[in-house]
């Protein structure tokens, strides 16, 4: 692992984090769902379509920072604690279903480029 690779990973992570923040801010109430779905697609696509250090930069850096399990968990818990159980279950289900669909699509498309 080179210093250049670590710097590229850090930059990709910073970009992913900023994109997640912007999505959450401007795409309410579904910004995190959008960010998680796009990040899951990027992770799937680059897992099969890219190899070596570039794969880590895309998957760990960009997609890892763009997607967020903790934000979804907090949002879902707050809904449940406020008595909005249907919203909590719906949000959790939507995040899981769309993330899996996006990863599957990304894996399929990434494999087609090899």
From TrEMBL:
Lipid bilayer topology: Multi-pass membrane protein
One GO cellular component, as annotated: plasma membrane
Entry's localization field: Cell membrane
Listed GO MF terms: fluoride channel activity; metal ion binding
GO biological process entries: cellular detoxification of fluoride
Reaction catalysed by this enzyme: fluoride(in) = fluoride(out)
Segments passing through the bilayer: 26-45, 57-78, 90-113
UniProt binding sites for Na(+): 64, 67
Superkingdom of this protein's organism: Bacteria
Keyword terms of this UniProt record: Cell membrane, Ion channel, Ion transport, Membrane, Metal-binding, Sodium, Transmembrane, Transmembrane helix, Transport
Regulation of catalytic or functional activity: Na(+) is not transported, but it plays an essential structural role and its presence is essential for fluoride channel function.
Family as reported in the entry's similarity comment: Belongs to the fluoride channel Fluc/FEX (TC 1.A.43) family.
HAMAP family attached to this UniProt entry: FluC
Function: Fluoride-specific ion channel. Important for reducing fluoride concentration in the cell, thus reducing its toxicity.
Descriptive protein name: Fluoride-specific ion channel FluC
Source organism (scientific name): Citricoccus muralis
This protein's encoding gene: fluC
